[in-house]
Write a sequence for this structure.
């Protein structure tokens, strides 16, 4: 049995924090895992800025609800689900992802969750597990699944490496260059062709 | 992060083999895991009857394509997917399940696959793994998921037992009686209420 694991942000939907950075006019919030490979460092930095600006979960959720998925992402994701099983492996948070999942017709999503105070202040976050993306691939392989994985960021490299097959998707130049061992697709058409090759 | 694991046949869709038994007029094919707990024994029995009657994969797929999901199953499955992650854990085969998954708006499905000769004769089957349902629950728990599981048959008991919480759904009298340690729901409304209790 085959399974396709995809990163969410930058692959199927825009980067949530970049979108929120633009909407809130706080340029520092535009840093992502593309820029900062240390996720804990990145999140502490983000939560600190949110608190300094008195921004709470509902403020972010309002922006996310107005986001669209990337052009062609719904059609691509539907095409994958007709061919194989699809699980989205993301470092985002359940509290953020829901309106975007609705727009993608509810594919399965394994991600993290936030710690939120009663007044909506984000006080912290719970990583589902350390190296969650890679561990998920390992677990699927232990279930005798053949796994294909694709993503765009530093935090997708271990997942792609662990999978039976995979590639980068719309990765920034530095990652393409440093990890030229992986091919990099730039259109959903090409990514679907890679998946079809894997499924054959 | 929470995940709901559901059996497929008897829960969301009718029993495929019973439906095919009626369509083909072969009453012996109506035995299911409800009647025969030994899955390998049951499958050998089924494949033997298919071959004796010269019935091939396309004959079964034609019948499955005309099947409807159980009344309320699509709405129930959509409601679960809005609340949590849903993975269907089934002992059916990919080659059978596809038209039914389309009718359920493509939830994720972990199941088995068939060995099929070029002329469509089903020559055997590949179990994804031994005790596939229970092992999947173990793997999700190892991913730090909280798991709820529900099903109707002998082959669901280990899955329900392994999950953090769960119940039977429309189980036959004997299973209800022998496994009264598990509660048994009979409507999607009640099953959703159980899931809501778990998610709280």
């Amino acid at each position: 049995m085959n399974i396709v694991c995809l990163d969410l942000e930058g692959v199927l939907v825009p980067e949530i924090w970049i979108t929120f950075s633009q909407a809130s006019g706080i340029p520092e919030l535009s840093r992502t895992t593309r820029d900062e490979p240390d996720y804990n460092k990145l999140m502490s930095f983000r939560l600190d800025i949110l608190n300094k600006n008195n921004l709470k979960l509902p403020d972010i959720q309002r922006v996310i609800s107005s986001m669209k998925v990337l052009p062609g992402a719904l059609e691509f994701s539907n095409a994958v689900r007709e061919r194989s099983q699809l699980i989205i492996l993301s470092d985002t948070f359940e509290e953020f992802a829901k309106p975007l999942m609705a727009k993608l017709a509810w594919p399965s999503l394994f991600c993290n969750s936030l710690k939120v105070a009663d007044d909506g202040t984000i006080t912290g976050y719970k990583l589902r597990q350390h190296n969650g993306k890679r561990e998920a691939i390992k677990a699927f392989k232990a279930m005798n699944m053949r796994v294909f994985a694709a993503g765009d960021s530093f935090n997708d490299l271990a997942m792609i490496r662990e999978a039976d097959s995979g590639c980068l998707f719309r990765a920034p130049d530095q990652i393409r260059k440093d990890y030229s061992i992986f091919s990099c697709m730039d259109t959903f058409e090409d990514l679907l062709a890679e998946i079809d090759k894997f499924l054959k």
